[in-house]
TrEMBL record:
<keyword id="KW-0999">Mitochondrion inner membrane</keyword>
<dbReference type="InterPro" id="IPR013842">
    <property type="entry name" value="LepA_CTD"/>
</dbReference>
<dbReference type="Pfam" id="PF03144">
    <property type="entry name" value="GTP_EFTU_D2"/>
</dbReference>
<keyword id="KW-0648">Protein biosynthesis</keyword>
<protein>
    <submittedName>
        <fullName>GTP binding elongation factor GUF1</fullName>
    </submittedName>
</protein>
<dbReference type="GO" id="GO:0045727">
    <property type="term" value="P:positive regulation of translation"/>
</dbReference>
<dbReference type="GO" id="GO:0005759">
    <property type="term" value="C:mitochondrial matrix"/>
</dbReference>
<feature type="binding site">
    <location>
        <begin position="110"/>
        <end position="114"/>
    </location>
    <ligand>
        <name>GTP</name>
    </ligand>
</feature>
<keyword id="KW-0547">Nucleotide-binding</keyword>
<feature type="binding site">
    <location>
        <begin position="164"/>
        <end position="167"/>
    </location>
    <ligand>
        <name>GTP</name>
    </ligand>
</feature>
<dbReference type="InterPro" id="IPR035647">
    <property type="entry name" value="EFG_III/V"/>
</dbReference>
<dbReference type="GO" id="GO:0005743">
    <property type="term" value="C:mitochondrial inner membrane"/>
</dbReference>
<keyword id="KW-0496">Mitochondrion</keyword>
<dbReference type="InterPro" id="IPR000640">
    <property type="entry name" value="EFG_V-like"/>
</dbReference>
<keyword id="KW-0342">GTP-binding</keyword>
<dbReference type="GO" id="GO:0005525">
    <property type="term" value="F:GTP binding"/>
</dbReference>
<dbReference type="InterPro" id="IPR031157">
    <property type="entry name" value="G_TR_CS"/>
</dbReference>
């Protein structure tokens, strides 16, 4: 109910905002910020509702970054984030803001919106006392708006609803206000209506952060207790841990201990993210920043770990529940001699994305590799892309599968169930929230895309784990001229084996380049063939167009062909493009 929610709106917004002093910007003295002057908050929202744009405006308003036309998603630092226009990693920034003659320290933690990354959201929230819940004035409440609201509500954070994009022609902020009141029980006068794009009314957001969100409950006189809530690896400086201080003070030169591994380290550097690292020599309880302490081994900075002063052991803070992987895939180096390089790249990347689980695995066809668990298919693709972009690694990914529990007995029990409706609620006259129980396998691949296209983009979707159910499942092999393609071995429901097998065979036929000989593509359950396609022989002569005698052009084409071949994997004597497996898999559920 509304009564349980801490924090409420006040009606007056004084206008005497000061600017951020240059001195503070260059050399922040963190001792000036008493606990009561600190606000730690996150921005949460459904994907594309405008979190990153609002974060950019808040950074500009507080003088953290200059106002230029190029401030697009400053906190989205990863290349993959900029390319895909989505937030993957939560980022932190400390903002200095003057309000009614007083300097405040506002720690902003950006969060991702996609359903695959909700783990990052709950992690960010552990360092906060409040959230800005951003809702698009045109689209209204969507699936992740609801999911994120409940994450914040359960963590007992102050929720400030921000209705964004009021500049849009079809915006209906009043309708969204009513939805917020109905679904979240937040009085409509607490909603702040803004345009993050144009900057309209964004100052009210900062003022609400100061007035409605309580300062952190921490004790500076107690011995140091710092929570590691994120960490990254820098080739030259080692591990950079993002920390939130719950008690005490940490200074450069301090000897600190990790509660997780009991090792002692010396603090080489502490500071705030503004939004880039700015060394401050000290951090005090209630503050959020980074710390470098000579941790060289990537396993040393566990997310969720507590750091304390040597000789002053403390009770560790509650860590984080490890994220539950939903999608599993094998990962192998394209070239086995690259095994060790890939191993260290995976270790470094999993330090930064601890929601990926890693187990060693090996396969007759692919050699030594790993079995990785991801939170969803987008998460898997992003991880793969980051490996390639940030670590220059060439990998083979096998077909993603979901976890099954097999009971080894002859009696199979109940027929596999399709979705079962659990509950239904009308959000307003034109929107309804439906709750279904689904087999995970049915939603994991491109259910989301199909839902979007069927509903012309209107429906949105979120999911949580509902446990295991028994089902009649069979293992299906895909064969190329009689050789099993390890990457495409899948578990399917018995009734769908034929359709799924046929789709995979047809899709493979479209993706496989013709070769010198005929290729038979078959789907088999045990020794029974359930589908078959054939690829006719053909030789691609890349030099055919090179009439005349330009030798450099010929060499270029041959080089390109050789590079293309590096991205191929050999099954028997058949060359298969590396990305064929993902392409094939993506169509599997369009049965
Ligand atoms: N018209 C209008 N467009 C906006 C406004 N705020 C954001 N947008 C646009 O909406 C799109 C999504 O904005 P982002 O800030 O990237 O959204 P996000 O919620 O951070 O997205 P993720 O990080 O992927 O979750 C971008 O094209 C923005 O330019 C606004 O106030 N008005």
């Amino acid at each position: 109910t509304g009564a349980a929610r801490p924090g409420a709106a006040t009606n007056s917004w004084p206008t005497d905002r000061l600017f951020c002093s240059a001195e503070l910007k260059e050399k922040p003295d963190m001792s000036k910020f008493l606990v009561e002057d600190i606000r730690n908050f996150s921005i949460i929202a459904h994907v594309d509702h405008g979190k990153s744009t609002l974060a950019d405006r808040l950074l500009e308003l507080t003088g953290t970054i200059d106002k230029t036309k190029n401030n697009k998603q400053v906190l989205d630092k990863l290349q993959v984030e900029r390319e895909r226009g989505i937030t993957v990693k939560a980022q932190t920034a400390s903002l200095f803001y003057s309000f009614q003659g007083k300097q405040y320290l506002l720690n902003l933690i950006d969060t991702p919106g996609h359903v695959d990354f909700s783990y990052e959201v709950s992690r960010s929230l552990s360092a906060c006392q409040g959230v800005l819940l951003v809702i698009d004035a045109n689209e209204g409440i969507q699936a992740q708006t609801v999911a994120n609201f409940f994450l914040a509500f359960e963590a007992q954070l102050t929720v400030i609803p921000v209705i964004n994009k009021i500049d849009l022609k079809n915006a209906d902020p009043d309708m969204v206000e009513k939805q917020i009141e109905k679904v979240f029980d937040i009085p409509s006068d607490e909603c702040i209506k803004i345009s993050a794009k144009l900057g309209t009314n964004v100052e009210s957001v900062l003022q609400a952060v100061i007035e409605r969100i309580p300062p952190p409950k921490v004790h500076r006189k107690n011995p140091l207790r710092a929570l590691v809530f994120d960490s990254t690896f820098d080739q030259y400086r080692g591990v950079i841990a993002n920390v939130a201080l719950f008690d005490g003070v940490v200074s450069k030169g301090d000897k600190i201990v990790s509660a997780h591994n009991q090792k002692t380290y010396e603090v080489n550097e502490v500071g705030v993210l503004n939004p880039n690292e700015k060394s401050t020599h000290k951090l005090y309880a209630g503050q959020v920043g980074y710390l470098i302490a000579g941790m060289k081994d990537v396993t040393e900075a566990q997310i969720g770990d507590t750091l304390y002063l040597h000789n002053h052991p403390v009770e560790p803070l509650p860590g984080f529940k490890s994220a539950k992987p939903m999608v599993f895939a094998g990962m192998y180096p394209v070239d086995q001699s690259e095994y060790n390089n890939l191993k260290s790249a995976i270790e470094k990347l999993t330090l930064n994305d601890s929601s990926v689980t890693v187990h060693r695995d090996s396969s007759l066809a692919l050699g030594a590799g790993w079995r990785l668990g991801f939170l969803g298919l987008l998460h898997m693709e992003v991880f793969n892309q980051r490996l390639e972009q940030e670590y220059n690694a060439a990998v083979i990914l096998t077909t993603p599968t979901v976890p099954y529990k097999a009971v080894l007995s002859s009696a199979k029990l109940i027929k596999a169930r399709r979705a079962v409706q659990q509950n239904m609620m009308f959000i307003d006259q034109s929107r309804v929230m439906l709750k279904y129980l689904f087999p995970l396998n049915e939603i994991v691949v491109d259910f989301y895309d199909s839902l979007k296209s069927l509903s012309s983009g209107y429906a949105s979707f979120d999911y949580e784990d509902a446990g295991y159910q028994t089902a009649e499942l069979v293992k299906m092999d895909i064969l190329l001229n009689g050789n099993i393609v390890e990457e495409l071995v899948t578990i399917v429901h018995k009734d769908k084996a034929h359709t799924v097998g046929k789709t995979i065979c047809e899709r493979l036929k479209d993706t496989l380049p013709r070769q010198l000989f005929e290729i038979a593509i078959q789907a088999a359950i045990g020794s029974k063939i359930v589908a078959r396609e054939t690829v006719k022989p053909y030789r691609k002569n890349v030099l055919a167009k090179c009439y005349g005698g330009d030798i450099t052009r010929k060499m270029k084409l041959l080089k390109r062909q050789a590079e293309g071949k590096k991205r191929m994997r050999k099954i028997g004597n058949i060359e298969v493009p590396k990305d064929a497996f993902i392409k094939v898999l993506k169509t599997q559920t369009n049965k």
